[in-house]
Backbone:
């Protein structure tokens, strides 16, 4: 094997390892506190079927009567279009808790 082909293999291996680290970091759950539970009451504003993740937007009225939109990240459309998931998705203006 020549030095040039060895270098190409090393660079390709480095790129693949780098991509794996990036993908792993993208799907990290480190930003969530598994010990904390939040309960919200609101009205479904919108459901966005987007790749790679869909979003559920809920308008919540705070105790001081101000309104704020909360976004909830979900699976992508290919997963959500499965029959079981479709039944679980609310229509806009549906009260949710």
Residues:
């Amino acid at each position: 094997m020549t030095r040039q082909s060895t270098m190409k293999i090393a660079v390709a291996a480095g790129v693949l390892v780098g991509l794996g680290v990036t993908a792993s970091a993208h799907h990290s759950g480190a930003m969530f506190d598994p010990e904390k539970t939040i309960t919200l009451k609101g009205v479904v504003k919108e459901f966005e079927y987007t790749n790679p993740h869909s979003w559920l937007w809920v308008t919540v009225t705070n105790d001081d009567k101000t309104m704020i939109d909360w976004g909830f990240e979900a699976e992508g459309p290919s997963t959500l279009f499965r029959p079981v998931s479709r039944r679980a998705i609310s229509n806009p203006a549906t009260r949710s808790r």
